[in-house]
Amino acid sequence: MMHYTELEAIALPLLIGGLILFMGFIVWDLAKKSNAGRFGTSVLFFALGLGVAGFMIKTLVVAVIQSN
Q1: Is residue 40 within 8 Å of 30, Cβ to Cβ?
Q2: Which of 62, 65, 47 is nearest to 12 (CA)?
Q3: Helices (DSSP H) in the chain: which residue ranges?
Q4: Structure confidence by residue, pLDDT tens digits, 15-43
Q5: Residues ≥6 apart with Cβ < 8 Å to 44
Q6: How far is CA 51 from CA 1, 8, 10, 37, 66, in A?
Q7: Sign of the four-CA dihedral 58, 61, 65, 68
Q8: pLDDT of 9
Q9: Do the beta carbons of residue 41 and residue 31 sit within 8 Å?
Q10: What pLDDT, on the 0 to 100 scale, is given for residue 43?
Q11: Under a CB-based contact definition with an 8 Å cutoff, are residues 30 and 44 in contact?
């Protein structure tokens, strides 16, 4: 039988990855509906990418701190 912490360790990255993909779809749809053009779409995805990168960096920093 799987303990809830094991389920959480598996489900959390999967669900956050799904959320990131869904946010990417939302940004793409927003850029398409607002006729943002190539540059505007790039700026929107760059902003989303910074948020995702910040989340990943935070996760790595927490893992490094907890390992010491």
Answers
A1: no
A2: 62
A3: 4-33, 37-67
A4: 988 999 999 999 999 999 999 999 999 99
A5: 27, 30, 31, 36
A6: 36, 22, 22, 22, 23
A7: positive
A8: 87
A9: yes
A10: 94
A11: yes
